[in-house]
Amino acid sequence: MVTQNFLYDAILYIYALSLLFYFSDFINASRKAKRMGTGLLVFVWVLQTAYLLSRIIYHLQISAVTNFGYWLGFSWLLVTISLVISRFH
Questions:
Q1: Which of 19, 47, 58, 69 has the CA that lies 20 to 30 A from 79?
Q2: How confident is the model at residue 75 (pLDDT cuts 50, 70, 90)?
Q3: By three-state DSSP, how is residue 22 classified?
Q4: Where in the chain are the domains?
Q5: Residue 61 has pLDDT above 70, yes or no
Q6: DSSP states along 29-63
Q7: How many other C-beta atoms can be found within 10 angstroms of the C-beta atom of residue 41?
Q8: Is 19:37 a contact under the CB 8 Å cutoff?
Q9: What pTM value is reported for the model?
Q10: pLDDT score for 71
């Protein structure tokens, strides 16, 4: 399932990989797996931020938000909250 937007596909695949590392840490309490999952989640956050900013700059109309833009912003917020909680917990 490859779409025309390779960056968004990469974000989804790397996020899924980070979830697998977090699940592996949950099952086997591995510090290395948790570090890898967090690193991948940070990378996803950077990619999402770059993708979100490029869409905002390219379209220049924040008032006309599509469903895709809404869900992208919502997922960015969830990843941001996850990283903040992970940092302070």
A1: 58
A2: confident
A3: helix
A4: 6-88
A5: no
A6: --HHHHHHHHHHHHHHHHHHHHHHHHHHHHH--SS
A7: 21
A8: yes
A9: 0.79
A10: 84
Q: Is the distance from CB of 14 to CB of 48 less than 8 angstroms?
A: no
Are 41 and 78 spatial neighbours (Cβ–Cβ below 8 Å)?
no
Structure tokens, 45: 């956050």
Q: Residue 26 carries which side chain, given as an amino acid letter? A: F
CA distance 14 to 19: 9
Measure the CA angle with vertex 72, ends 1 and 17; round to 5°.
55
For 60, left (φ over 0), alpha (ψ -120 to 50), or beta? Answer: left
